Amino acid sequence: MLESSDAELEDERLKQLELLAAEREMTTAALLGHYAPGTFGFHEAASTASLILDLVDERLLQHPAIAGSPDCFLLAARASEALFNLYQTLGAVQIAASHPDEGLRPEELNASNDD
Q1: Rounded to whole angstroms, what are the CA distances from 51 to 60, 81, 93, 99, 102?
Q2: pLDDT value of position 87
Q3: Domain assignments of the chain as residue spans, ordered by start
């Protein structure tokens, strides 16, 4: 089984960012700005996560070869859960970016009527 450590995944993420920026002839900061929450690029990532989640649920979890194998079904179900969690996290980030004050108490917003 392939399982990467958190440190290995972070190294891979940073390398991937450098490659993506270089491919687009951008700095890493510009790339991140182009795909920040609230942008079309960010929405595209959430949409892709949703699409792939649907494919895993409809094409893998419901496939007889997968359903017939406890090990394969477990892996497909974990992939589905990971994609669902990714989609939910992207949605939460998007909402937080568009409504940064939502959920805060008045005292946290400094929104009292006292002058």
Answers
A1: 13, 14, 18, 25, 28
A2: 97
A3: 37-99
The DSSP secondary-structure symbol of 110 reads: T
Residues whose CB falls within 8 Å of the CB of residue 100, separated by 6 or more in sequence, listed in order:
none
With contact defined as beta carbons under 8 Å apart, do 51 and 45 qualify? no
How is the chain split among helix, strand and coil, in percent rounded to 5?
A: 70, 0, 30
pLDDT at residue 62, rounded to an integer: 97
Helix (H, G, I), strand (E, B) or coil at 47: helix
- pLDDT of 27 above 60: yes
- Looking at every residue in the chain, the average pLDDT score rounds to 90
Q: Is 109 left (phi over 0), alpha (psi -120 to 50) or beta?
A: alpha
Q: What is the DSSP string of 3-25?
A: ---HHHHHHHHHHHHHHHHHHTT
- Pair 87, 42: CB distance under 8 Å: no
Where b means 16+ CB within 10 Å and e means fewer, 87-113 reads beebeeebeeeeeeeeeeeeeeeeeee
